[in-house]
Amino acid sequence: MADTVTGGEAAEAAVGSEAEVGSEAAAKGAPAKETLVDITTIRYLDPVSTAFKETEGGFVSMEAGPDESYPRVNFQRSFPFSRSGEFISVRTVEGKEIGIIKKLSLFASEAVAMVGRQLDRRYFSPTVTKINSIKEEFGYNYFDVESSAGQCRFTVRGGHNVVSITETRVLLLDVDGNRFEIPDINKLDDRSLKRLEMFL
Amino acid sequence: MKLLYDLPESAMESVSGVLNGESIRYCVPADLDEDNVFITDWIALTETRIITVKGGAFREEIAVADGADYKNVTLVGNGILEGEVNGVPRVIARYSMRHVPRYAYIANILNVMSKGRRPMTKSADDEGVCPKCERRMAEGTLICPYCTSKFTVLKKLKDVLSKHIPLLLLAVGMFWVITGISLISPYITRLFINEVLNPIEPGMTTIFGLERGVTAVMAFVSIMALLSVSSSAIVIVRGRIMTLVGNRIANDLRNVVYEKIQALTLNDMTKRKAGDMMNRVTRDTQRIRDFISHQASQGINMLITLIGICVILFATNWRLALLIIVPIPLVGLVIKNFREKMWIIFHKQWHVYDDASNVLNDILTGIRVVKAFGQEEKEIGRFRKASEDFRDISMSNEKFFNTLFPILNFFVGCSQFLILYFGGRMVLGLEMNVGELIQVMEYASMLYAPLGFMTMLPRAIANAMNALGRIYEIMEVEPDIRNADESVTMDIKGKVGFTNVTFGYQSHEPVIEEMDVDVAEGEMIGLVGHSGAGKTTFINLIMRLYDIDDGSISIDSVDLREIDMNVLRSQIGVVLQESFLFSGTVYQNIVYSKRDATPEEVIAAAKIANAHDFILGFPDGYDTRVGENGHNISGGERQRIAIARAILHNPRILILDEATASLDIEAEQQIQEALGRLTKGRTTFAIAHRLSTLRNANRIMVIDKGRKAEMGTHDELLNMKGIYYKLVMAQRQVTRT
User: Fold this and answer.
1) In chain B, what residues touch A56 (CB-CB under 8 Å)?
2) Within an 8 Å CB–CB cutoff, is residue B416 touching chain A?
3) How much is the pTM?
4) Residue among A55, A138, A141, A178 with most chain B CBs within 10 A, to mutate
5) Are A160 and B38 in contact (CB < 8 Å)?
6) Which residues contact B436 (CB under 8 A, 6 or more apart)?
7) Which residues of chain A have a pLDDT value below 70?
8) Partners of B585 in the beta sheet?
9) pLDDT at site B452
10) Taking 80 as the threshold, does the pLDDT of residue B432 lie above it?
């Protein structure tokens, strides 16, 4: 079924279908105008017929149909910041895309948990809950924070590594490539916010 | 790379029971668990096993030989060590990004061990970590910004500052004189009032033995005028000296920083932003100049004034002095707090202004795209929004300042009322005379300027020190590619050899792997492969823009690292896909590779490059200005000027990186012809996506995923029916369609 239907439940019903796009429209007697989605092939994985299973070694295997199985698959978000639970690319170990999970929440709860764990492993950015101190020396900012992963001290080079993703969401990138996230700066306590204010 | 950490005592006790006579050869932290919490677990490698330590105690052992294909996988914000243990792929350890390079080594070691070999990798010091505070330091720096004292930074710059010390001392001396004059003025006012204007004791002579009257008035006015004139004259001379010194220091600093930047390697440069480097050369040196010529010099002045006033006030009338001094800390505190807030307010305003500028810059530089997609309306809206944001924040800030300062001034001035009240009562009670009161009031009014200045000084010092620190940080970088102690100077013939070369821009991610290539003198090698396969990296290594991680590269059988870098690069010529022309004339751009070239040589080079005729077509010929804001020349013309530059250079090794990729067929033919002449008799490496441009190549090397996949003549490779064959067939099909 093509996922070109727009609006309400129709779109909801179309989510996750995996046939070649455009075919249904063609069968009904060609649409007036082809959309981009009609002329490309995006394979959305069907929440019903796709099965995930955790492997012994801590990875995930996938069966996408009776004759199609993969001993290990990897998951990558297409929009890690803006749509973290949607458009998740499922790929082979070699990096070839098998298909896309259009909306993870439409899958069975075990699958959601399983894929969620793999995504949590792949995208690790502890949430900063409190900023104990920021000391600036020679263009390096030494952060001491409380985070979802515990207390951390890390070094951020220059102000450009404090990235505002939205007006209230901030990402801190340290000199090693670690990421720390503040989902909503307004939820920080006053002192923490004041310390961060210089970078915003 | 540190690969052998000491296990904590309790963990060691727990592990020692399972060592069975083996020793721990490598031991690294695994600092992240599956629940995304930082922990202090460990992975230890003995002669035959992997031992994991969890929660401070032995957890598991894996026989290395039972596993294969060990890998460090870099994820987003963390990494995992995985391997196929007994045929099952599994996660062995998880860690933060800090340990990713370490695990790249560990994975290699495990793969060597799993094949029954003994790993030779040795643990070294933990680089990039300050031994004192254990904080991470940026790559390439030898200093920890956190632990470096500002004084050390100043000491490092003493070479730049020392030659200006005599002038600085002279300026400081002048400050003393100016301060002295300003301090003496209220005292003279007091004498003038008490001894010249005082109506109580008529007929009395003044301090200078003058009769009270017009002459005495004239004498005092003359003294005051003389002091004022002298003070102004000294201020002018002092100002000129400080401007001179400040600019000289800034100039010296700029040159020192710029020379250092030029000495940095491409590797160092690519880790930094061009804008950041420019800021260090221009803005940071300017800040230091401003600090030296304004804040530092005025600070000395203000400090002396402050101390002087306090001493005189207490000597004149200690009770009134107390009245003045007591509110000072309070006023200082208020000013300081407001300054903090002001700084944040200004910072936000700059930020919004930057945003608006960036939007404008985006729209103007991308105007072709904007117009092509008909997005003018949207872009107008985007700029309007940014501009309105700036308007709003400016208005709100200015409202704040326009309210704050009058109120602040009123409170600062309040102590004047106190002095007037209590001083007035003292005068009426004959405890004090009018002259003394006016003197005290003048000193009190002089007190608030240095006070306000002092509250601003810590931030000014911090800013200047940070600027100094950023400059210092550049000066401390040790270039990662250096000439050998006894580097070789030689005339290169052009034989190039790669032996087991491995290289990665980050050592844990190899871009070139185990590459073996031998190229004879004068041979032309075509380099083909997919984007990102490692072609450009390969030629960067020949130019020694980066040093390899393993193996060796030789030129005429001499190791590349032994050859003097200037000698090497002066004998290698490069033509890139997008040739960069500097602002200047066509002539200047051609002679860039050989400064002492004669006009005849330049014309000859241009003729060989098929450039002479079009250059003469310009009204200004070889004197035509090119580069930014210069004559608009086409890509093909630009390319031919670049070839002329390479020809004039007369290199023994020539590198063509997609030199004709962006040109039309006719321009390409002309350039191919020019290149044909250029490559004759020179060892040439040519990267090309359009395979037809490699028809002159003696051999073709296909690079795939950093490895030499195929190498041979065009015919040999076609017969192999491998990657090259597929590429040729694919291109033929495209040409046909």
Assistant:
1) 88, 90
2) no
3) 0.67
4) A138
5) no
6) B190, B194, B316, B317
7) 1-34, 37-38, 138
8) B625
9) 72
10) yes
